[in-house]
Amino acid sequence: MLLESRAVEPFFKNGFVLGCETSQEGVIIDPGDEVNDLLAIVERTQLAIKYILLTHAHVDHVTGVAKCKEMLDAPICLHRDDLFLYNGAVQQGALFGLRVDPLPPIDHYYDEVGPFRFGRYEAVVHHTPGHCPGGVCLQVGEAGTSGQMLFVGDTLFAGSIGRTDLPGGDHALLLRTIREVLLPFGDEAEVYPGHGPKTTIGHERQTNPFLVSRT
Ligand SMILES: [Zn+2]
Ligand SMILES: [Zn+2]
Questions:
Q1: From the CA of 33, which ligand is nearest?
Q2: Where do the domains of the chain lie, and which CATH numbers do they carry?
Q3: Which is nearest to 115 in space by CA: 136, 84, 89?
Q4: Rounded CA gap, 194 and 143, in Å?
Q5: Which residues lie near ion ligand 2 (Cβ < 5 Å)?
Q6: CA of 91 to the centre of ligand 2 (A)
Q7: How far is residue 101's CA from residue 24's CA, in Å, rounded to a whole number?
Q8: Could you say which of 16, 100, 104, 139 would form a disulfide bridge with 147 (CB–CB 3.0 to 4.6 Å)?
Q9: pLDDT tens for each residue of the chain, 215 residues long
Q10: Cα of 177 to ligand 2 centre, how many Å?
């Protein structure tokens, strides 16, 4: 699989381009302020982007959606429970002192459409609330197999977990989501967080201070 990520200031939020080498089909995950870099990757790799997939709708994860939609004309996909954040992106930006242009409408909600196929691969959506109500994990791998690449948004980071002090955040729910939805993917599963470096489920299970049980 073709996989590239980019992150730029001020949020250093990871945006991803995934692609199938044989079919030249791909997806973009969480286009934010680094959107021009992501579009340059699409141009260079000649991928036909099938979907714009959002792990959640905090402002750092959506500031590039309008540009992506304009340039690629791919459907935008989000969990319905984050629609209030998506529709409030302009106000979210204002809280950080940022000017955010209004966003184009959502095309697909995850409870209606999916998995999202691109060439030999697919992204399967798992609801992972806690950091925000409509957070999801995108499980990616060859279609029909149990994908081992997890795009988790801000639910789990290398050595940390997502903040829960923003509207709709719930710390206890976040911990339960990580234990019940993410850890069962198994120690080998690769975790691609919304910020910072990639990790694995096993590494986090053994070393993440929020997950290591003190017995
Ligand atoms: Zn977030
Ligand atoms: Zn974020």
A1: 2
A2: 2-207 (3.60.15.10)
A3: 136
A4: 23
A5: 13, 60, 154, 194
A6: 16
A7: 31
A8: 139
A9: 999 999 999 999 999 999 999 999 999 999 999 999 999 999 999 999 999 999 999 999 999 999 999 999 999 999 999 999 999 999 999 988 888 988 999 999 999 999 999 999 999 999 999 999 999 999 999 999 999 999 999 999 999 999 999 989 999 999 999 999 999 999 999 999 999 999 999 999 999 999 997 55
A10: 17
